[in-house]
Amino acid sequence: MIREAQGPVAHAVGSSPDNKLREALLKEYGDVANNFRGLADVRFKLLNLLPIAAAATAAFKGDKPDGLTFFISLFGLAVTIGLLVYNARNDQLYDELVGRAAAIERAVSLPDGAYANRPRPWLDIHALGHTWNVDHRSAVALIYSATICLWLTLGLASILETLRQYFVGIGWDRLKGSHALFVVQLCSFAAAALATFAWGQRIVGEQVSARRKLLIRLAKEAVASMLATTWDFPMRAPGERAIRLCACLARSRDFLAELHDLPLCKELTGVSKARLYRKEKHERRRLLAEFRQARKAVRARSRFFGQLTGEELQVYIPVSSPAMRSAYLVALLTDLPARWIFDCWAGRRISISGQAGAVTKKTWEDDGRIGLRKPPPPSRPARRGS
Questions:
Q1: Which residues constitute the domain of residue 133?
Q2: pLDDT at residue number 54
């Protein structure tokens, strides 16, 4: 007997389930597990081939880097970045497969299954002032970072060696000898390591974290806005605020905030003001065009679902809870998983940004709800003579 599930799979296990429904869930569970193993196999194959290819190229490049080495390193860098992007997309599918498998396990009364009760990474290593998280993605990021650093080192070394030979040819005798070649390679490695760290840790890492927090906030606000919609069949069209939020969520961008944060040119004068104004005007037009295109697509989808009858709409939104219906509708309008959207609205996926889920002053004062206490004010040093 399958118990009634809570959450996005509740439609699949109603109050009177049958064996056919259980078989369908178990079959889907097998497909999800196979896809999960397939993504894991692709990841390990790439991790096996990529470092070996990079190391072999570095070993057979010769004693002195030349122009051919530069083009080979440029090709290897492009391929590595492409594989890194492919792996990032696989991580998204990987997370969704794990979540879906866990939901099916709970639906068939297996709350302690391999996916529903999957342990989190619990080991951290502290060394050299840095905390190293022992998990799959940290290891994958290290391998890709090392490979990118190697390709950058080869490319920079070929450029610096070409410059060194040029200056030697015009009479700079100090740049002759093996020590100069060693300095070229050392400087190339240092610059490549610094660029890899700055690009990977500072730029990409911060953008991924900010985008994740933004999506959580937009999903939460979109579901809350959809809850204001009357859920009598046929469905009433969502409001304008819900349409705007879904358009931003579909493109993973907060267009309204970006338009508001465009730089103003009131304090500039002359040519600088004119150039900045033209640049701002072009950026504003581009953002508005992209936002209107996304809003048009969301409105078209909402009109389609609004024209369906009750039985036809239940094929797309087969749940009865208003919150779950709102999550399903947002998912249909944005092509995002309904379970993830519902988790964002319910607070299971908490953002630590200042816009959603942050420990604000109100949160600290609400100690009865979350069990926190307002921190005491910092003590001031006593004045002399007091």
A1: 10-176
A2: 85
